[in-house]
């Protein structure tokens, strides 16, 4: 039976994680959930693209789980996006492998909720910094689900962490109805001239 949920966990220092490790451990106990710890799988950053694309093909919901690093994803997660979501497979002409799937960012921040406000030092809500995630989903024909965020992760007490984990599991437990309540995805067409030409030996 295909796995309906794929969690791509990207935490560079997972043993010291307070949020991602808790959520990933809780999710592993759920049937139909596959957790792929990218930093454990690829400590040398040599990503097995075929294996990652096969995992994506099995999934209906794809979760990007990581702490925010400089207002975006950790380095290995970005490399994963660059290499795995390839032209002609995930987007562009003939690239419909992810069409109709769902993408759900589950992220944590070191800064407080106030810091991600017009009055805070980040000046914008954290969701604004995730706009490239939404556009990536759109480009691939995926439905972009509202991000699940925990602010102030380093200072959160145990009760807050456990409540956050319960909310995360509750959302997973309400699949697929929760995803289907979101707007239908529509894949964005990419003009051929906007991307490099593919050759047998790679990109030219």
- What percent strand? 15-25%
Structural class: alpha/beta
CATH arch. level architecture: 3-Layer(aba) Sandwich
User: Class in CATH?
Assistant: Alpha Beta
Overall helicity: 25-40%
Our measurement of the CA-to-CA distance between the termini, rounded to an integer number of angstroms, reads: 39 Å
Q: How many DSSP helices? A: 8
Number of strands: 8
Q: What is the assigned CATH homologous superfamily?
A: Flavodoxin domain
Number of structural units classed as domains = 1
The name CATH uses for the topology is: Rossmann fold
Task: Walk me through the structure.
With 204 residues, the protein is α/β, with parallel strands linked by helices. It has a single domain (5-203), classed as Flavodoxin domain (Rossmann fold). It has eight helices and eight strands. 28% of the residues are buried.
């Amino acid at each position: 039976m295909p796995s309906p949920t794929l969690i791509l966990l990207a935490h560079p220092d997972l043993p010291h994680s307070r949020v991602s490790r808790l959520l990933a451990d809780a999710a592993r106990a759920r049937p139909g959930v596959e957790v792929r710890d990218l930093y454990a799988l690829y400590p040398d950053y040599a990503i097995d693209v075929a294996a990652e694309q096969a995992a994506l093909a099995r999934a209906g919901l794809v979760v990007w789980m990581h702490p925010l690093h400089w207002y975006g994803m950790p380095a290995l997660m970005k490399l994963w996006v660059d290499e795995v979501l390839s032209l002609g497979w995930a987007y562009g002409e003939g690239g419909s492998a992810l069409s109709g799937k769902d993408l759900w960012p589950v992220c944590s921040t070191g800064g407080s909720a106030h810091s991600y406000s017009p009055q805070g030092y980040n000046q914008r809500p954290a969701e604004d910094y995730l706009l490239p995630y939404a556009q990536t989903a759109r480009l691939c024909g995926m439905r972009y689900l509202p991000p699940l965020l925990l602010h102030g992760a380093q200072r959160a007490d145990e009760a807050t962490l456990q409540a956050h984990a319960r909310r995360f599991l509750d959302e997973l437990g309400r699949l697929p109805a929760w995803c289907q309540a979101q707007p239908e995805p529509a894949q964005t067409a990419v003009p051929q001239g906007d991307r490099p030409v593919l050759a047998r030996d790679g990109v030219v």
